[in-house]
From TrEMBL, chain A:
Heterotetramer of two alpha chains and two beta chains. One of its GO terms (cellular component) is blood microparticle. The gene is LOC110145127. SUPFAM superfamilies: Globin-like. Gene3D superfamilies: Globins. Belongs to the globin family. This is Fetal beta-globin.
TrEMBL record, chain B:
Pfam families: Globin. This is Hemoglobin subunit epsilon-1. Residues 3-147 form the Globin domain. InterPro entries: Globin (IPR000971), Globin-like_sf (IPR009050), Globin/Proto (IPR012292), Hemoglobin_b (IPR002337), Hemoglobin_oxygen_transport (IPR050056). Belongs to the globin family. It comes from Odocoileus virginianus (White-tailed deer). Transmembrane segments: none annotated. Keywords: Heme, Iron, Metal-binding, Oxygen transport, Transport. Gene3D superfamilies: Globins. The keyword Iron-sulfur does not apply.
Length: 145, 147
């Protein structure tokens, strides 16, 4: 899926990412930009405004958890389906999350990386990351039935 | 029909005023062609699209990108009637250009990413939300006359 150069550049950029900050920002932005996604997090408390969402400690904690899982996935770029098999079952059988939301979160993550890295987020890096988030979204949808 | 609040309109127009349409247009179209390479099929006449740097430096890509984003700018003046504003372009893209409407969504997402790279901190969650709504509205408007 990714060439050797793409894997190197993706890993290098991601190595500079502060997982807890970026995770919180990505999940927060998902909830703000696509407000229907808040339905999965009703127990998180105050999600009433963008500021409330972005400052919400449960959003930050859960965002960090999600991005740590994503980071683990990056170590298994050759077998994303295997790496995310259990999480796929969880999201289908227990959490009942529509797989379209994985694509939305992937796109938000790309926007957050673009925002943080600016010019360093070249077209090539964008292309590589887009492939990765698409691969992760597909892997997470793979066990759905 | 998509409806924008006063705050959303302000977020959109406020950011747009600072956008260099020529540069951003070229960058948006270029990145579309790099990140989603199948979209190159619509631009076979553009010459060298063989690498990311060839695409980003290609003068036809830059010129056409500017044209596309200028048109987008017109939409921003017609936020209350995107379907009307894009009716003719919708017919053109369906009847003459035969572009799958999914590509409008892809280009919209690329525009959001470029704004994020350029504006950094200023590209707050609220601003991102307003722009995501705009690009979705434009994509829908461009698909509206398809048959």
């Amino acid at each position: 899926m990714l060439t050797a150069e793409e894997k190197t550049s993706v890993t290098a950029l991601f190595g500079k990412v502060k997982v807890d900050e970026v995770g919180g920002e990505a999940l927060g932005r998902l909830l703000v930009v696509y407000p229907w996604t808040q339905r999965f997090f009703e127990h998180f408390g105050d999600l009433s405004t963008a500021d409330a969402v972005m400052g919400n400690p449960q959003v930050k904690a859960h965002g960090k958890k999600v991005l740590e899982s994503f980071s683990d996935g990056l170590k298994h770029l050759d077998d994303l389906k295997g790496a995310f098999a259990k999480l796929s079952e969880l999201h289908c059988d227990k959490l009942h999350v529509d797989p379209e939301n994985f694509r939305l979160l992937g796109n938000v993550l790309v926007v957050v990386l673009a925002r943080r890295f600016g010019g360093e987020f070249t077209p090539e890096l964008q292309a590589s990351f887009q492939k990765v988030v698409t691969g992760v979204a597909n892997a997470l949808a793979h066990r759905y039935h | 029909m998509v409806h924008f609040t006063a705050e959303e309109k302000a977020a959109i127009t406020g950011l747009w005023a600072k956008v260099n349409v020529e540069e951003a247009g070229g960058e948006a179209l270029g990145r579309l062609l790099v990140v989603y390479p199948w979209t190159q099929r619509f631009f076979d006449s553009f010459g060298n699209l063989s690498s990311a740097s060839a695409i980003m430096g290609n003068p036809k890509v830059k010129a056409h990108g500017k044209k596309v984003l200028t048109s987008f700018g017109e939409a921003i003046k017609n936020l209350d009637n995107l379907k009307g504003a894009f009716a003719k372009l919708s017919e053109l893209h369906c009847d003459k250009l035969h572009v799958d409407p999914e590509n409008f969504r892809l280009l919209g997402n690329v525009i959001v990413i470029i704004l994020a790279t350029h504006f950094g901190r200023e590209f707050t969650p609220d601003v991102q939300a307003a722009w995501q709504k705009l690009v979705s509205g434009v994509a829908t408007a461009l698909a509206h006359k398809y048959h």
